[in-house]
Specification:
Elements lengths: L9 H5 L2 H38 L3 H17 L1
Helix pairs in contact: 2-3
């Protein structure tokens, strides 16, 4: 039986060399894209909320704020 420390990452040990690097690259790319998308969504909501405030549109402000808060909870 092969000895493996409890803190080792089984997924990375199971995938040799290049495939392991490709998997890590895919994971980092996915995290990066999620981060960029999250920032874009945040900017969108904050701009729309600001426009609703400028227009004194209370209903739109409340709707956008609720949508924005739901987005924040999902992160």
């Amino acid at each position: 039986m092969e000895y493996r420390p409890a803190h080792s990452n089984e997924a990375l040990h199971a995938i040799p060399g290049v495939e392991g690097k490709a998997l890590l690259n895919d994971l980092y790319l996915d995290l990066f894209l999620k981060h960029v998308h999250s920032e874009q969504v945040e900017t969108y909501y904050l701009n729309k909320i600001d426009q609703a405030l400028d227009a004194r549109d209370e209903q739109l402000f409340i709707a956008l704020t609720n949508d924005y808060l739901q987005h924040l909870k999902q992160e």
